[in-house]
Amino acid sequence: MLVHTRRCSLCLALLLGHSLFLLDNRESTAQAGMPAVPLSDAEFAQLTEQTARLVYDALKKPDDLAQEKARSAAVLLAAVAQYSQDAANAPRRVPVRDTAFRLSALIKAGKFDDARKLAESLPGLSADEKAKTAAVPIIMKQIEMHEAMRHFGSAKEGGNGAEKRLYDLQTANQKTRTLPAREMKDDLMLLALRLAVTGELVKDHMDAKVKLKPAVWKQHAEEMRRYSLDLARAVEKKDGAAAYKALGNLNDNCNTCHAKFR
Length: 262
What we know:
- Helix 4 (90-108) runs antiparallel to helix 5 and helix 10 (214-236) runs antiparallel to helix 11 (240-261).
- By secondary structure, the chain is mainly α.
- It has 2 domains: 41-124; 161-261, Four Helix Bundle (Hemerythrin (Met), subunit A), CATH 1.20.120.
- The chain has helices at 2-32, 41-58, 64-83, 90-108, 112-121, 145-150, 162-172, 186-201, 208-212, 214-236, 240-261.
């Protein structure tokens, strides 16, 4: 009787384990079909309009820093479009990606008037049901690693000051460990979404240091993507405690990554 009971228990455990495996497999398959950075149409439109304004304004006086700021913003918008793409939204997002690449090329060629006109057209692009949806290489092809990261650096370097803003935001709220309501606005959410896209973008970066520890690099890039998304969604929900936690995780990950690979 005892042997029979043990056999039944073993069978039950095996069946349960098999069921959990199938469930996990289904969940993994479902996740694999999702974009790396899921964005609503409204969020994508905000990011597109924000980039169009940035490029247009930067090229009014296109010195070297302004050109780099505009070009990196254009390429990062292309990355936003590519890494938020799914079967349903591809006809709308692929044209933005491809137009953003053309915009970057115009800036690089010094055709600033044409670039400003093209930037203005970005928010109103028509969908293209025949658009080529296959992913294209971006990092190390359209933009270098240092250019992508400099976009979030200081204004003196042509950046938007995001890196300092996030560290200051964490430092200022260490006592409460909660981001205040006045900080929980769309501009912070959109910044976090750009950082999430950048995390996905830089996974394929390769240089001498990364070659020594490629798995560690990819882990940091993935954590940048994940913590940035956590921050964006916490801001969207007006959850100050969750936003502070995500911000801390993001900053800690950046510090650790910089210590290893800068």
